[in-house]
Write a structure and sequence with these properties.
heterodimer, A: 397 residues, mainly alpha, 72% helix, B: 169 residues, Four Helix Bundle (Hemerythrin (Met), subunit A), 2 domains, globular
């Protein structure tokens, strides 16, 4: 057992040994080492977060045919650090009539709800915070803390725009939680576990091949959960200025902003873990845990890139369109897909790998085709109805 | 005292304090937020009891859904979120008496239970609580009937809610 094969255990044993040799209690030393591990993970994440600001700017610039930050340092790499300094030295304002305690707790909760997600992310076969057997539900639970932070921020700012923004955002989040949770059951059906590591371990064939529709629905629900375009109506610059975080300044605003970016990156990671094999890549993950970490980070970045791609391509939709899309289309499709997948899984249980994949893909295509057909015919009927009303109105004139 | 007991005492005290603040704080949104704190404390207690699944469900259902709906309802229905008027009515002593009696009754019942003073036996390795729970909820010899009845009840509530909210043309 050397450092290259299991770095986490070796490092923790080494540190515990040092602490015990200083005359520390065994249990206390262990707890301290765990705390240090969490601290280091959070530090690394925050540094990644700073770089994500740079990535986001560069990528959006590419999508909009610009160059992006390119003055400070190579490729403008110093820009995000300058941004951080700017945020730190800005005046910290609190609006009159704000609920001070709630107002100050909200950005912390927002950041916390994102960081806590990394407790269940398997970075490598041997490197993960906790292997919770209800890992998928944990994501939803952490998301509900995020929801709470938004409503706290909106309410405590004593500003009607921020309250409206918070209402919209929370409406989006609690409604898109439903298809997301339903779709998360599909990797659970395939792997027989809700634990992240077990899901990754059972992906000899990536789950996206079993159920591409589920991967797509998860991505849509994740984008809505993140409150990014096309579902960023909480922000709605033209009508709400900037939504729930309108009254925040300096680093408190920075916490919301950085939290959003890290959240998007994290959900890119979850997308990879559930449907794209997590840290697995043709056996490369077995060579070294560091390689596995590189693979999962790369896959998370690809997921993050897709989320950005959607954000900067699609325009914002209205709240009634969005809720109708969720409740009348996405949720029924997600539930149908879960039922069909469970049924197919029971039918094909004994079948060998490729037969199973073919059956599952066929089931997915049928579900997608039927749901699109239903939408098409409903849309046609609606258009005919509107056309009929128009003709009647014109005949009256 | 073990570390677990210390954590239990701290979390228990925090939960009780938040629960007390829920009913004494004037501002209704603050009361809802203290309710969130109390529910979170209960989730931590579940974790201490090795019931991780229940803890996560507690957070999803009670904080993610119910508490958020409370806050929504308070914000949408009231102009002034603070409550005025007396916090207690003249029957407060009866309520207090009932609370004390209930606590005493529960304590008395638990006193007679053989597991009350025993330490919990260690969970065998490879024991999957979710699997056990799922099996119990779906096996005919387990709790499939209560589970189905509860599902039908929830479905009826759902249909009722849709019917009430449905805009008749």
């Amino acid at each position: 057992m050397n450092f290259l094969n299991d770095p986490l255990k070796v490092a923790s044993d080494w540190l515990t040994g040092i602490f015990v040799s200083w005359g520390m209690n065994d249990v206390f030393a262990h707890v301290l080492v765990v705390f240090l591990g969490i601290f280091v993970l959070i530090l690394i994440l925050m540094v990644i977060d700073i770089l994500l600001v740079w990535i986001e700017r560069k990528v959006v610039a590419r999508f909009q045919d610009r160059l992006g930050p390119n003055r400070l340092g190579p490729f403008g790499l110093i820009q995000p650090f300058a941004d951080i300094i700017k945020l730190l030295i800005k005046e910290d304002t609190t609006p009159a009539g704000a609920d001070k305690i709630v107002y100050n707790i909200a950005p912390m909760l927002s950041m916390m709800s994102v960081l806590i997600l990394w407790a269940v992310v398997p970075l490598a076969p041997v490197m993960l915070g906790v292997d919770l057997n209800s890992g998928l539900l944990f994501i939803i639970a952490a998301g509900s803390i995020g929801t709470l932070s938004i409503i706290m921020a909106g309410w405590s700012s004593n500003n009607k725009f921020s309250v409206i923004g918070a209402f919209r955002q929370v409406a989006v989040m609690i409604s898109f939680e439903v298809p997301m949770l339903a779709v998360m059951l599909i990797p659970t059906i395939f792997s027989g576990s809700m634990g992240m590591n077990a899901i990754v371990q059972s992906q000899d064939i990536w789950f996206v091949l079993f159920s591409p529709l589920a991967a797509l629905i998860f991505l849509i629900a994740a984008i809505a959960e993140l409150g990014r375009a096309p579902f960023d109506l909480a922000e709605g610059e033209s009508e709400l200025v900037s939504g729930y975080n309108i009254e925040y300044s300096g680093m408190k605003f920075g916490m919301f902003y950085a939290g959003e970016l890290l959240h998007a990156f994290t959900f890119g990671g979850f997308w990879a873990i559930m449907f794209f094999g997590g840290y697995r890549f043709f056996g490369l993950e077995l060579v070294s845990p560091f390689l596995a970490i590189a693979i999962i980070l790369f896959k998370a970045l690809v997921g993050y890139w897709v989320i950005m791609w959607v954000k900067y391509t699609v325009m914002r939709i209205r709240i009634d369109q969005m809720l109708a899309f969720n409740w009348k289309f996405l949720t029924p499709v997600a539930f149908t897909l879960v039922m069909v997948t469970a049924l197919m899984n029971a039918l094909l249980r004994g079948a060998d790998g490729w037969l199973y994949v073919t059956g599952m893909i066929l089931a997915n295509i049928v579900v997608a085709w039927v749901s699109l057909e239903v939408v098409r015919s409903t849309g046609k009927k609606e258009r005919e109805r509107v056309e009929g009303v128009k003709q009647v109105v014109e005949a009256h004139h | 005292m073990t570390a677990e007991q210390i954590i239990f005492l701290i979390v228990g005290a925090a939960t009780l304090l938040s629960a007390l603040l829920v009913v004494t704080v004037r501002d209704l949104v603050h009361a809802a937020l203290w309710l969130v704190a109390a529910l979170f404390g209960v989730a931590i207690l579940y974790t201490l009891l090795n019931a991780g699944f229940l803890a996560v469900v507690q957070v999803v259902v009670y904080i993610g859904a119910i508490a958020i709906l409370f806050i929504f309802a308070v914000m949408l229905t009231r102009r002034q979120a603070a409550d005025t008027g007396a916090a207690l009515n003249k029957n407060w002593w009866a309520g207090a008496l009932m609370a004390v009696l209930t606590f005493a009754g529960l304590a008395f019942l638990l006193q007679g239970w053989s597991g009350f003073s025993k330490t919990a036996s260690a969970i065998p390795s490879g024991f999957d609580a979710i699997e056990q729970l799922g099996g119990a909820l779906t096996s005919p010899v387990g709790y499939v009937l209560p589970f189905e009845v509860a599902s039908v009840l929830l479905l009826a509530a759902l249909v009722g809610a849709v019917y009430l909210a449905f805009n008749k043309k």
